[in-house]
Amino acid sequence: MQRRGHLIAMGGALLLLGGCSSLPASGPTEYQFNRAQHDPRQNTVGYGIVQVSPELISVLDNEAPPRFSSLDADAPIVHQAHNDTVGPGDVLQVSIYEIGSALFSPSSAAMAAASASGTGTTPSPSTASSLPPVSVDGNGTIEIPFAGQIQVTGLTTSQVAEAITDRLRQKSQAPQVVVRILSDIANSVMVYGNVRQPSRITLTPNRERILDVIALAGGENHAEQADADYVVRLTRNAHIAEMPLQVIENDPVQNIVMQPGDRIQVTLQPRSYTVFGASGQVTQTQFHTPVLTMAQAISRAGGPLDARADPNAVYLFRFENASVLRRIGMVVDQNAKTAPVVYQLDMMNPSNYFLAQKFRMQDRDLIYIANSSSNKFYKFFGLISTIIAPGITAAWIAK
Predict the structure, then answer these.
(1) Distance between CA atoms of residues 115 and 244, nearest Å
(2) Which of 62, 265, 349, 367 is most buried when burial is the number of CB atoms within 10 A of its CB?
(3) For residues 138 and 159, what is the distance between their CA atoms, to the nearest angstrom?
(4) Residue 53 and residue 344: Cα distance in Å, rounded?
(5) E strand or H helix at 391
(6) Which residues, by range, are in coiled-coil regions (predicted)?
(7) How far apart are CA 193 and CA 268, in angstroms?
(8) What is the pLDDT of residue 391?
(9) What's the CA gap between 58 and 355, in Å, rounded?
């Protein structure tokens, strides 16, 4: 009877052995990864697997995003010289000083009549008149009484005053004109996003820089967040560049001079990465340091598990810049800006630990540590032990 019970248990074990491949797993093995890469039915996004190597690290390090300093180098010289020019939307205050009978004095007509009759007093030697605020229209012109329309776009306040004076010389005795800007739209930048006081910041001849205008807008609105989590986007002449705020703070070359018309957007973007597979911890982790390496990211998740993981099959999933993938020989759609790629790190090779210390993580990277191909066998063995152990124990007690 006992012999029959043993046979039944062994038969059940053999049946389970046939179903070993159907046991649950936390993810694919290296073999399954390689097979899926070449199967269009499984690889529907068209990813490729690239080994982490010194050449790859070099390409990634040299592929820097557009720097603010590159935008500054392309800036027209005329815009770098002044922040006091007039443009559409500005509001000007025009003051005119005249000698004798003044064109713009309210009492000039009465004074002229009294002088002609011989009964009036001697005209005032000089008269100062301030015109109502003058707006610069969309064509860049202003309208001044007795002077007509004057094109002022791109002129400084002194040059605008000269242009008005030239128009009035034939009609007024020794006119002198003073112009100042009441509302400066042309010489301003927009600062918005995650700042305390989103606003239009007026530039001055002092030549404010990026950090200056962010400070004038009140700075970041969440002081408890690390500066590395704030991204500054600069839009200038249809060109866009962005970088972490902390990079600008640490690299004075990137703290460039603002130009009229620039737009600065400050965005809070907490960076994170995700770990799946045979690791000590399946988790999503935020990182606040300016640079986080792949070695640091893996260690924070507990590293590969000895009992389950395949150390030579550690994968990092990323939507990479298309220019990077073209440089390493991958075929990428000509119009694509990014494309999916899987970087593989062989942690059985000691030299690759040095590469892992140089490989920089990016926001939303995904690390997957593959299961060992023997993992299912150990699962199956544990399952068999669970099933037959009670029978073995009962047989031993029966003796």
Answers:
(1) 72
(2) 367
(3) 19
(4) 9
(5) helix 375-398
(6) none
(7) 8
(8) 53
(9) 10
Give the span between the Cα atoms of 280 and 277, in whole angstroms.
9
The tens digit of pLDDT for each residue in 94-152 reads: 999 988 776 776 554 444 444 444 544 455 566 778 899 999 999 999 999 988 999 99
Neighbours of 31 (CB within 10 A): 12
How many whole angstroms separate alpha carbon 20 and alpha carbon 179?
A: 88
Q: How far is CA 143 from the centre of its chain?
A: 43
In this structure, what are the phi and psi dihedrals at residue 269, rounded to the nearest 5 degrees?
A: -130, 80
pLDDT at 64: 65
> With 90 as the cut, is the pLDDT of residue 232 above it?
yes
- State both tokens at 87: 């443009």
**What is the percent of the chain where pLDDT is above 90?**
42
Three-state secondary structure of 227-271? HHHEEEEEEECCEEEEEEHHHHHHCHHHCCECCCCCEEEEEECCE
Taking Cα atoms as reference points, which of 349, 388, 367, 386 lies closest to residue 53?
A: 349
Cα(369)–Cα(28) distance, integer angstroms: 9
Measured distance CA(38)–CA(93) in Å, rounded: 72
Is 359 in contact with 58 (CB distance < 8 Å)?
no
Residue 279's nearest CA partner among 302, 312, 311, 313 is: 302
Helices first, then strands: H and E counts in the chain: 13, 17
The predicted model scores a pTM of 0.63
Q: Please compute, for residue 18, the number of CA atoms within 13 A of its CA located in the half-sphere on the CB side.
A: 5
- φ/ψ of 74, rounded to 5, equals -90, 0
Quick one: tokens of 273?
């990465």
Confidence of residue 56 (pLDDT cuts 50, 70, 90): very high
Cβ atoms of residues 87 and 72 within 8 Å: no
Parallel, antiparallel, or unpaired: how do β-strands 271-277 and 283-287 relate? antiparallel
CA 146/CA 179 separation, integer angstroms: 17
Band (31; pLDDT cuts 50, 70, 90): confident
Closest CA to 353 of 311, 388, 393: 311
The CA distance from 261 to 320, in Å, is 31
